[in-house]
Each structure stands twice: as C-alpha cells, then as structure tokens.
C-alpha cells in the first residue's frame, strides 16, 4: 500500500463525515450496499473530492457499478491514481 494511502483514507473519511454527515465504521465498508451513499450524495462527494484534492473525475470513471467509489479505501486509491496521472502529464 502506498505511503500516502493512510492519510488519503483519513482525509476521505473526514470529508464524508464533515461535509456529508456520513460516519464510516471501516475503510472497507461498502458505501453503496450499506445504504450510506446514494446517487445524490455521490455527486456531492465527487465535487468535494475534486475541490479538496485538485483532481478531475471523468464520466468514464463513473462505471455503472461504481466500483471505484464503493469504499473509502477504494476512493483513496482512485485519488492516488488520479494524482499519479496528473504528475505524469
């Protein structure tokens, strides 16, 4: 796991709690199946992530099954991947 994964996981958890009032028990908790994240909250979360981390979430990244956004850990990994793409470009 990359060294930045833990701080990113904590930052995503903080955003979910502070901005969306969603308390996450564990980084691997399924946000969708657990009923914690619906489509409206997902759009709000994406806007927060883009603002907070300076990333851009493309429509191609929003797979129909939303695998990249199902848990805090997956969201943190997605942010790390987007940052790496930006660093390479």
TrEMBL record:
InterPro entries: ACP-like_sf (IPR036736), PP-bd_ACP (IPR009081). SUPFAM superfamilies: ACP-like. Residues 3-83 form the Carrier domain. Gene3D superfamilies: ACP-like. Pfam families: PP-binding (PF00550). This is Carrier domain-containing protein. It comes from Methylocaldum marinum. The lineage of its organism: Bacteria, Pseudomonadati, Pseudomonadota, Gammaproteobacteria, Methylococcales.
């Amino acid at each position: 796991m990359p060294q930045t994964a833990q701080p990113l996981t904590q930052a995503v958890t903080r955003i979910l709690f502070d901005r969306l009032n969603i308390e996450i028990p564990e980084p691997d908790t399924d946000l969708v199946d657990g009923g914690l994240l619906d489509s409206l909250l997902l759009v709000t979360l994406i806007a927060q992530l883009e603002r907070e981390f300076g990333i851009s979430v493309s429509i191609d990244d929003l797979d129909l099954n939303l695998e990249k956004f199902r848990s805090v850990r997956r969201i943190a990994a997605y942010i790390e991947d987007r940052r790496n793409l930006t660093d390479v470009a």
